[in-house]
Design brief:
single chain; 260 residues; alpha+beta; ten-stranded mixed sheet; 5 helices; 16% helix; globular
C-alpha cells in the first residue's frame, strides 16, 4: 500500500514526521501525516508535485541510500523506470555504458548551484563534449564534464520554471532549427526528472544513438501506439513523426537564458 511505502521510506531516511514535512516545504507534520494512515488516505498513487517534494527531501538519505526511482513509485509504475546517472567531473555516479542522464548525486561547490554540463543540445545536431573517466575500486565511471555552475534562485526554479532544483542542469543550444525561439549560444534549463511526455512542449531528446537535440513534441491524437510529432520551430525544416516509445526524453526544457 502507498501508506506503508511512504512510512517505510521516511523511517529508512531516519526522519521524524515533522522534519520530513519541513524538508518538503510544509510547516508541520499535519500536512503529510495522512499519507501514512490508510484510514485517512485511500486515494491511490500520490500526485506528481507531492512526489517531487518527497524526492527532494529523501533521495540520497538512509542506508542503503534512497533512490529517485523508489520514491517515484509512489506516483505510479509508469514514473519509476530506472534511468542511468549523469557523471560529473566532481562526483561520478554512473557507468561507462550509460546512455541516459540524471544528476541525483552531484554536489555543487556553490550552495544552490546548477551545473552546466558539456552536452550541447542540437537545434539540428547535438554534441557531447569532453567526457571524464574515473576509476573507483574495480568500477569504471564515465560522464559529462561540468563546465560551470549557474546560481539561480531555488524558488524561481521550483515555482516559476516548475522544475526540480535537484534534477535540473544547464545545456547550451547549437544550430538553427529552433530559431526564432532558441538561438545558437542560448542556454536552457533541463529538468531531467521529467522524462515522460505529459504535455505538448519543448524537450531535450535523443533517439538513443545520436547526440541530444532540443525539439518541440506534439502528441498525435488517438494514435495507438502513441505517436508524437518532432517539430523544429524553424519553418524551413521538416516535421517528423515517430512512436513515442522509440524516443528518449532526457528532460523537459523549463527555462531559457538568452542574450537579447
Amino acid at each position: 500500500m502507498i501508506t506503508s511505502e511512504f512510512k517505510s521510506l521516511r523511517m529508512r531516511a531516519g526522519l521524524s514526521m515533522d522534519v520530513l514535512a519541513q524538508r518538503m516545504g510544509y510547516k508541520r507534520a499535519s500536512s503529510i501525516q495522512r499519507y501514512e494512515d490508510p484510514k485517512q488516505y485511500g486515494g491511490g498513487y500520490l500526485k506528481r508535485d507531492l512526489v517531487q517534494k518527497l524526492a527532494d527531501a529523501l533521495v540520497g538519505k538512509g542506508d542503503p541510500a534512497i533512490t529517485a526511482q523508489e520514491v517515484w513509485k509512489l506516483a505510479g509504475p509508469e514514473f519509476a523506470t530506472p534511468r542511468p546517472s549523469l557523471v560529473s567531473s566532481y562526483d561520478p555516479d554512473g557507468d561507462e555504458n550509460s546512455n541516459g542522464y540524471s544528476r541525483d548525486h552531484w554536489t555543487p561547490s556553490l550552495r544552490g548551484g546548477i551545473p552546466e554540463i558539456d552536452v550541447k543540445l542540437g537545434a539540428g545536431e547535438g554534441a557531447v563534449g569532453e567526457m571524464i573517466n574515473v576509476r573507483v575500486g574495480e568500477d569504471a565511471y564515465i560522464g559529462h564534464k561540468v563546465l560551470a555552475e549557474w546560481l539561480l534562485n531555488k524558488d524561481f526554479v521550483k515555482h516559476e520554471a516548475k522544475a526540480s532544483p535537484r534534477n535540473t542542469v544547464v545545456m547550451e543550444v547549437i544550430g538553427d532549427s529552433m530559431i526564432p525561439s532558441y538561438q545558437p549560444g542560448d542556454r536552457v534549463l533541463v529538468d531531467m526528472a521529467q522524462t515522460r511526455m505529459l504535455a505538448d512542449t519543448v524537450y531535450a531528446i535523443s533517439d538513443g544513438t545520436s547526440e541530444p537535440q532540443i525539439k518541440r513534441l506534439q502528441r498525435v491524437p488517438f494514435s495507438d501506439p502513441v505517436r508524437v510529432k518532432i517539430i523544429s520551430d524553424n519553418p524551413a525544416l521538416e516535421t517528423f513523426e515517430v512512436d513515442l516509445d522509440r524516443l528518449t526524453i532526457i528532460g523537459r526544457v523549463c527555462g531559457h537564458i538568452a542574450k537579447r
